[in-house]
Each structure stands twice: as structure tokens, then as C-alpha cells.
Specification:
Blueprint (H helix, E strand, L loop, with lengths): L1 E10 L3 E4 H5 L6 H8 L3 E4 L6 H16 L8 E5 L10 H9 L6 E5 L5 H14 L5 E8 L24 H9 L1 H4 L5 E10 L5 E9 L7 E2 L13 H5 L6 E2 L1 H22 L9 E4 L4 H10 L11 H4 L6 H11 L8 E8 L3 E8 L1
Helix pairs in contact: 3-4, 9-10
Bound molecules: acetyl coenzyme *A (ACO).
Acetyl coenzyme *A (ACO) binds next to helix 2, helix 7 and helix 9.
């Protein structure tokens, strides 16, 4: 018996935001963003549209392609770092809004950019344990709530039409190294127990090292503080993520190839056996660097960061879904998922389609 992905779907909000739109509200250029990250555009959620909403959009597609009803799903795993509520997580939101029976066991996990990868391992483990037969796994994030909307951000989605003031431009420019890299989006898959050992998950290698936590984290708002949120934290922009971009870049280029090699070795495969490598979409230069280090040609390492930017827990399932629907992932192919992100959490999983 193996765990097999039987359906997938995506949830992309409608507001297309080009690099030029961002250049209207901060000192940046289309050329800088494209050259440094490969990103040409991203999509932003509407006001009030949450990670659970995008996740549900993706989940509908995944259930439909898997041909499964809500009653046939035993468990839900929702990976996000941007849940609708501080607590509870998005699991109960999805259970109630989508009308799953209350027998659904809903797990909420938060491994940021590695959330979907960790979710795959959890879903596979829960299935192999024999406890659950069919699991809906969602990876979804909305980054727009991190943005300082009072500084003219509504112009990016056409809700305002004005030039920003010099002070607003300066404030936006201070966080330009991070905000240009992110978009909103979700992907979902149904993972099922299948009595066919010729396909399914072959294994995974997951890692966590919190000693470098401040390379990518949100300084303000947290229960180590008393109170956990203050006006001062908001005024000081401590609610906006801090990122040591170069350090994360360096870690990504060493840890992801290492994890891919290890997961292959553990499964008795070699990197050259991988047909398609799906890399977390944080920066095109990282994706290309990982491919190069592994000696893989670019056609075996697809990317879509140019269209969506980094959607955190959404990148891997969105990329997987697109590769399946475009016929790039075909039955029998060996697929490897790899990610690294805030935590730091990273790893790789091997899957026979
Ligand atoms: N527009 C124009 N100029 C900019 C921008 C911008 N948006 N952002 C930064 N710059 C400037 C900087 O101020 C700096 O100027 P200076 O030399 O005058 O000081 C210059 O560009 C170079 O900046 P660097 O930070 O050195 O640029 P770099 O080439 O390292 O790229 C980047 C930065 C894109 C952030 C890169 O380091 C990166 O992608 N890192 C990894 C990000 C990542 O993987 N995050 C993890 C996922 S997120 C998650 O887990 C939630």
C-alpha cells in the first residue's frame, strides 16, 4: 500500500499586480525585480479574501479531480503561516465553510515555505499508519495583510488611483527587499491509500534548525511578549517580516540539493533518475542554482515564480498542479519536491506519479 496524489487544484486571487504597479508606490524597477528574482507579476487577494478562502478554492478543484466527496475525506492538513485567526487554525474554518462532516480530523501546521512539503510527509505517514485513508492537504498563504495598506497599496489592485506621498514612498521603499517577492495563492491535493506499490511516495527527509530563526521571522506579535501585540510594535513595523535575504539564499542553495541527494540515496535512486524536480518558488536564481548544483537540466526543473512570486505554502502545490495539467508530470515519472523556508525548515520528498 502506498500514498498517492489522486487530485489537485489551485486558488489564485484575481488581482494581477505587475512589477510596474509596485514601482508606482516605492523605489523599485521591473528590471531589478526580474533580474534579482525572476518575478514579473503576482496576484493579490481582495480585501477580506483569506488564506482559508484561497485554500477552499484549491480544495474544490482537488476534490473534483480526485472524484471524491466531502464524506470520503477522513482528515485535513492545512499548511499556512497566515491563518484567518490567530487561533484556531484554518482547519475548522474549512471544515465548517466547506461542509465537511465533523468526523474530519483537521490538522493545522505552520512550516512557512516548507509547509506543503511537511504536509506531504504528514499525510503520507498518517496514511501508512493505517489511521486515515484519504487526506486533503492544503497549502495557502496571503502576504498582502503584511503590507502597509495605508501607504497607497490599494492602488496596486485598483481600489485607489493616486500618487503616493514622499513619506509613503519612503516607508514602502524600506521594505522593498521583501514585499516585491511575495504573492497570494493556494494549492491543494488529495492523498489516498492505494493498493498499488508501483506508484506513490517513496520517502522524505525533513530538517529543522531553529538556531538561525532570525534569518526570516516576524519580530513583533507573539506570546513571548506581554502583551503579545502593542501599538508600538505596529508603529515600529515589527509586524512586517524581517529577512536576511543573503543568508536565506545561501542556506537554500546548500540545504535543498543536500536533501534531494539524501532522499534519493535513501530510496536507492540517484539524482539522474528524477524526471521532474519541484523546487519551492522563492527566487528563480535559487531554483536555477539548485538545478545546477544537482546537474539537472532546466527542462527537468519547472518554475512559475515569474507569474505568482512566492506564495509560501502555496508554491509547491500550485507548481505540481500546473505540471500535471500541462502534461509535464506523467504517470510513472519520478518527481521530487524540495523546499526551504522560515524556521529554518527544509527537506525533500520523492514521489512516483
Ligand atoms: N528594488 C530595487 N532595489 C532593491 C530592492 C527592490 N525591490 N530590494 C533591495 N534593493 C537594493 C538593496 O537596497 C541593495 O542596494 P545597495 O547595494 O545600494 O545597498 C541592492 O538592491 C542589493 O540588495 P541585495 O539584498 O544584496 O540583493 P540580492 O541580490 O541579494 O537579492 C533577494 C535580494 C532577492 C532578497 C535575495 O537575497 C533572495 O531571494 N533571498 C532569498 C529569499 C527567500 O528565499 N526567502 C525565503 C522564503 S520566504 C518564507 O519562508 C516565508
Amino acid at each position: 500500500m502506498k500514498s498517492v496524489i489522486t487530485g489537485s487544484g489551485i486558488g489564485i486571487p484575481k488581482n494581477l499586480v505587475t512589477n510596474e504597479k509596485l514601482a508606482r508606490i516605492m523605489d523599485t524597477t521591473d528590471e531589478w525585480i526580474r533580474t534579482r528574482s525572476g518575478i514579473a507579476q503576482r496576484f493579490y487577494a481582495d480585501p477580506g479574501q483569506s488564506s482559508a478562502d484561497l485554500g477552499m478554492m484549491a480544495a474544490e478543484g482537488a476534490l473534483q479531480t480526485a472524484g471524491r466527496s466531502r464524506e470520503e475525506i477522513d482528515a485535513l492538513v492545512f499548511a499556512t503561516m497566515s491563518p484567518d485567526y490567530f487561533f484556531p487554525g484554518n482547519g475548522p474554518v474549512v471544515q465548517a465553510k466547506m461542509g465537511f462532516p465533523e468526523s474530519l480530523a483537521a490538522f493545522d501546521i505552520r512550516q512557512q515555505c516548507s509547509g506543503f512539503l511537511f504536509g506531504l510527509d504528514l499525510a503520507d505517514s498518517l496514511i501508512l499508519s493505517g489511521k486515515y485513508k484519504r487526506i486533503l492537504l492544503i497549502g495557502a498563504d496571503v502576504h498582502t495583510p503584511f503590507m502597509p495598506w495605508q501607504n497607497g497599496w490599494a492602488t496596486t489592485i485598483g481600489l485607489e488611483d493616486r500618487e503616493v506621498t514622499a513619506a509613503e514612498r519612503e516607508a514602502n521603499t524600506k521594505i522593498r527587499d521583501r514585499v516585491v517577492l511575495f504573492g497570494d495563492g493556494a494549492g491543494a491535493v488529495v492523498v489516498e491509500a492505494v493498493d498499488d506499490d508501483s506508484r506513490g511516495f517513496l520517502g522524505s527527509k525533513l530538517y529543522t534548525n531553529g538556531s538561525n530563526l532570525e534569518a526570516l521571522y516576524t519580530r513583533g506579535v507573539g506570546f513571548r511578549l506581554r502583551p503579545f501585540v502593542t501599538h508600538q510594535q505596529i508603529d515600529d513595523s515589527d509586524i512586517i517580516p524581517d529577512m536576511d535575504g543573503r543568508e536565506v539564499f545561501r542556506q537554500a542553495l546548500s540545504k535543498m540539493p543536500e536533501a534531494v541527494r539524501e532522499v534519493c540515496a535513501a530510496a536507492g535512486k540517484s539524482v539522474s533518475d528524477i524526471d521532474i524536480l519541484l523546487v519551492h518558488q522563492a527566487n528563480l536564481r535559487i531554483v536555477e542554482g539548485v538545478a545546477k548544483q544537482l546537474g539537472m537540466s532546466q527542462d527537468r526543473v519547472p518554475h512559475n515564480i515569474e507569474r505568482y512570486a512566492n506564495t509560501t505554502a502555496g508554491t509547491l502545490p500550485i507548481l505540481y498542479h500546473e505540471c500535471v495539467t500541462e502534461g509535464r508530470i506523467k504517470p510513472g515519472m519520478l518527481v521530487c519536491f524540495t523546499a526551504l523556508g522560515s524556521g529554518l525548515h527544509w527537506g525533500a520528498a520523492l514521489y512516483r506519479a
